[in-house]
Amino acid sequence: MCINNSDIPHGDAPEEVKQRSDIIWKYYQEWKKANPMQRVYNIKLKDYINVRQISIDETARHASKRYLSTLAVLQLDAILACAKLIKTDKPESRANQQQFKAMLVMQYECQGLGTVKLLVGVRHKTLLKVQYCITTLEVD
Predict the structure, then answer these.
(1) Is the dihedral of CA 94, 95, 96, 99 positive or negative?
(2) Per-residue b/e over 23-57, b at no fewer than 16 CB within 10 Å?
């Protein structure tokens, strides 16, 4: 899916955040059509990172809040393939993280955007790695 950066709103107004969320949703829908297995092999983990509904829900909700995070989502394949593991955390007590036994905090250096944070949940029993959320880290 080809999205022109000039088509992505830069502001913080609610309607601009909504537009960015819609862009992310459309991008994932097109990505899923092009990737029927809905997964990408991560070189560092030596395992697949899977994209599921929670991946889209969480990323659209969080990445749409910032222009750079929305741009980062458009680099999905590179992020999923090349992100490096930084640390492993316990899932938060929120309901949407209860399906995971661990959260992998990963990072990817994206030229022009900076450091991108990728959260990957590791499911109980199956140990399936599922992309949870993608956002850019803010620079101090």
Answers:
(1) positive
(2) bbeebbeebeeeeeeebbebeebeebbbbbebbbe
Predicted TM-score (pTM) of this structure: 0.92
- The domain locations on the chain are 8-136
| Alpha carbon distance 26, 123 (integer Å) | 26
Q: Which one, of 32, 106, 96, 46, lies nearest residue 72 by Cα? A: 106
Give the residue ranges of the chain where pLDDT is below 50.
140
Strand order in the sheet with 84-89: 39-42, 47-50, 129-136, 114-123, 100-110, 84-89
Query: Hey, what are 91's tokens?
Result: 């899932």
- Please, which residues have CB within 8 angstroms of residue 49's CB and are 6 or more apart in sequence? 39, 40, 41, 42, 80, 120, 129, 130, 131
Q: Which pLDDT value is given to residue 1?
A: 53
